[in-house]
Write a structure and sequence with these properties.
585 residues, alpha+beta, six-stranded antiparallel β-sheet, five-stranded antiparallel β-sheet, 22 helices, elongated
Length: 585
């Protein structure tokens, strides 16, 4: 395969904090067994999904450069994806939900470049290149769906998490790793499953991030489209699972018309889904997304928005009615009559306007937090931001003047005004004081010896969201996952089996009709009596060569293997169906 690096301009636009998750796709890491697993799943999927998947799927396979016989090269995919306005990057398993969605906002598809083990060929809880490359990539060739994915990322990355969400992310990441890893003790898996289950049962009220992850799961991952009576598959989790794509079409899985209630329907990544949601069209997905976004703090702001940020204990931003944006870890809010009247951050804080840090108001200026009153002055209907120069003069809100500002709710600011800053509309957004005291009743919120006091101006909080306003304001290169994906164990036996798989692969690729297959099968029988997939691949070659005697011998062997290993009997049958259906055709 061509592994030449193909550039994609979209990748050049990615901010540094997203680049930290990207890892190189070393194509040489994929073994012959990996390639055989990819080929089996893709052949099964294309054969079955041509009947039950949305028509964009098969078209998308071609448009995105996904081959049936070869694991895709990320570089080749990028070259082709650039033609439809997307790019792809490789990552190590699960990454934090906010980051995952922010990649989508940049039209970048995140692909876990590892591939599932042969033992988990039907389904793995760990994200892998089959799930991402064969599941997500083809559908984004549909422009309407691609725009939904981008918009979902744009809104989703602003969703506010609770402090429990990150614990859940780490628990799910660890569970997916140990379940996929070869030879993990059952006790380890059971403990990891219990940790996830305990968290799921004790999440409390669902955060915005938990809700939007639910919407993502029931659409992008496990979505159906059409009617409840005749649905088609478009969700990547279904498109990439040869087991669940068939199971989901049975009456055992309840089909529900998709609506915003899906935001409150949690899921279990370790089990087959008991119900799935059906959207009538891709356009309808955007309607539900907008309905959900209208309820997010991103658009509602207010007291509830700031409280969500405080509960998250993570970096977030509030935007005031003047457009001034305050980014930091919010620690407290003083409220009055159901409205926030004073907010406080702790630690490094930055101020911005329209996602661009204000000059002189980065974390070096505000290293220990930032506090400011919000709202109108007591007894004055006109908010400071709406005051004309004449109004400001009337209330002595002028440079070099010592002034006392009494805000509704009892916040009092007294100090000498140094200067003020205005936004593009001419509204005052920030007033700087010296010799300043800020109080709420008997409580002192700021005192002169602390230095200069910068007071944000805004009659209300219009927006609150996760992350900083300006990504360059903070050092966000901090991702240190608690666990790393585990590679398949190497052994002499495994190496010997890989050689046999590679030999068969070479014979098929080069259309070699001279190399004898009997010695390969004999080695397989003698040295690897539990392996089934290579025997199926040899049968395929024998069928093409029209060598019925050895083919019959292998069929008997596979029948014995089906009895010995009933858990793979249906996989063997499925592989043989592909061969003989093709022959009949």
């Amino acid at each position: 395969m061509n592994s030449t690096i193909e550039s994609n301009p979209l990748l050049d636009r990615l901010p540094k904090h997203l680049r930290q998750f990207i890892k190189p796709q070393d194509y040489s890491d994929y073994t012959p067994i990996n390639q055989a697993v990819w080929r089996y799943v893709m052949r099964k999927n294309v054969a079955y999904l041509s009947k039950v998947a949305h028509n964009s799927y098969l078209d998308g396979l071609q448009k995105t450069g996904i081959e049936i016989d070869n694991i895709p090269s990320m570089y080749g995919m990028n070259r082709i994806l650039s033609e439809i306005g997307w790019a792809a990057v490789a990552v190590d398993g699960f990454i934090p939900p906010n980051a995952f969605m922010e990649f989508q906002a940049y039209n970048v598809l995140v692909i876990a470049s590892d591939i599932r083990q042969l033992e988990h060929i039907e389904y793995t809880p760990a994200p892998d290149i089959i799930h991402e490359g064969a599941g997500h990539a083809p559908i984004i060739a549909n422009p309407e769906y691609a725009e939904y994915l981008r918009r979902f990322g744009e809104i989703g990355c602003k969703a506010i998490s609770s402090h429990k969400d990150y614990e859940m992310y780490e628990a799910i990441r660890y569970l997916s790793i140990v379940k996929e890893a070869e030879g993990t003790p059952e006790a380890t898996i059971a403990a990891a499953e219990k940790a996830v289950e305990d968290l799921q049962n004790n999440m409390g009220e669902l955060s915005e991030m938990a809700q939007i992850r639910n919407l993502h799961w029931w659409t992008v991952e496990y979505g159906l489209i059409g009617t409840v009576e005749d649905p088609k598959i478009y969700g990547a989790g279904l498109l990439s699972s040869i087991g669940e794509s068939a199971h989901c079409m049975t009456p055992a899985v309840k089909k529900i018309p998709y609506d915003i209630s899906a935001a409150n329907q949690s899921f279990d990544i370790t089990k087959l889904q008991p119900q799935l949601y059906v959207t009538p069209t891709f356009a309808y997905l955007n309607l539900v997304l907008e309905e959900f976004a209208n309820k997010m703090a991103l658009r509602t702001g207010g007291l509830s928005g700031i409280k969500k940020l405080i509960d998250s204990k993570a970096l977030g931003t509030v935007e005031l009615s003047t457009g001034l944006q305050i980014s930091g870890v919010f620690s407290s809010v003083i409220e009055h009559d159901g409205k926030p009247i004073y907010l406080q951050t702790t630690g490094k804080t930055a101020l911005a306007y329209r996602e661009k840090e204000l000059v002189g108001h980065g974390t070096l200026t505000h290293p220990e937090g930032f506090g400011s009153p919000i709202g109108k002055l007591e007894g004055i209907n006109l908010a400071i931001e709406d005051m004309s120069p004449k109004d400001l003069n009337a209330y002595d809100i002028l440079e070099s003047k010592t002034v006392t500002l009494d805000f509704e709710g009892g916040i009092k600011v007294t100090g000498e005004i140094i200067t003020g800053s205005r936004n593009l509309q001419g509204e005052i957004t920030l007033i700087r004081f010296k010799n300043c005291t800020v109080t709420h009743g008997e409580r002192v919120l700021f005192q002169p010896e602390w230095g200069v006091y910068d007071m944000a101006v805004g009659k209300k909080i219009t927006s609150a969201f996760s992350g900083p306003a300006d990504v360059n304001s903070f050092d966000l290169i901090t991702h240190l996952p608690s666990s790393k994906t585990i590679k398949a164990k190497q052994s002499a036996e495994r190496d010997d089996l890989e050689v046999l798989y590679q030999t068969v692969r070479n014979i098929r690729v080069t259309k070699d009709t001279q190399t004898l297959l009997a010695p390969i099968f004999e080695k397989l029988q003698n040295n690897h009596p539990n392996d089934w997939l290579l025997a199926v691949e040899i049968t395929e070659l024998l069928q093409e060569r029209n060598e019925p005697q050895l083919a019959q011998e292998i069929m008997v062997y596979l029948e014995q293997l089906r009895s010995k290993r009933p858990e793979v009997a249906h996989l063997i049958a499925g592989g043989l169906d592909l061969i003989f259906d093709k022959t009949k055709a």
